[in-house]
Amino acid sequence: MRSIFVVLLALAASVGASSVVTESNVATDHAIMNGPNHMVTKRLLRTETLPEEEEERANFEFVKKLKNLLKPKSVAQGVPAVIAKESQQLQAVAKESQQFRTVAQTLAMDKVKLPKGIKKMLDAQASTDDVAKALNIKHGEPIANLFRKEVLPTYVRYSELASKKTITPDIYGIGSLRKEFTDIELSAIINAGMKSSDELTFAAADRLRAGQFDDWLRQRTTPHDVYQLLRAGGKTISDADRVNWRKYLNKFNALHKG
């Protein structure tokens, strides 16, 4: 019976751990899914073997039934996708775009002055599609060129100012950028910008990342998919993105709880 107790104790611990929403529940990276914690549980269950095969067979069904009883009814691996009361909630979320900004206090973007031509477009309330074309924001352009002051930083500043006039939820013009870049391409561009030591480059990338999170929320993109998009083909995500991903997970669950 002492051996059974050890097995049951380990089983309860492993089942309890599976009910917690963590990165490993959502990410599909094999390095995460097959990490040390997973192996520790397997080793723990193999620590002691029952002395008699007959006793092992006799207790197997009991252990199996107990595991089913302890198993949580729902694990956030698939994350519920129930659509509910969204219009007002999503509008409120759009107004809270700064929640995903890691350095909201930076003044670099506020100091960006729009060129005369772009200022005229602002006065005429031109679309971000037109502004993106005017600034030559296009697929295949080197990332360093995209983050020059007169390109993405100017585009982000224009979108910020224009959104105050049009009251659009897409504050940072992500919708227009997604017409030119795939989600993964845009994520990779933003990831590069957020690694920059240049304050303006970082500020522009920071706002674009906030815009991505808002856009994903409006599109009902699952936290699992968001995590993969943040990786953009890499092995992991940054600490700042990890913090914001957890915020996103909570927001998503709140909007889509059944």
UniProtKB/TrEMBL annotation:
Subcellular localization, as worded in the UniProt entry: Secreted
UniProt keyword terms in alphabetical order: Secreted, Signal
InterPro entries: RXLR
Any Pfam family matching the protein: RXLR
Protein origin, superkingdom: Eukaryota
Signal sequence, renumbered to the chain: 1-17
Record remark on domains: The RxLR-dEER motif acts to carry the protein into the host cell cytoplasm through binding to cell surface phosphatidylinositol-3-phosphate.
Function: Effector that suppresses plant defense responses during pathogen infection.
Family: Belongs to the RxLR effector family.
Record-given protein name: RxLR effector protein
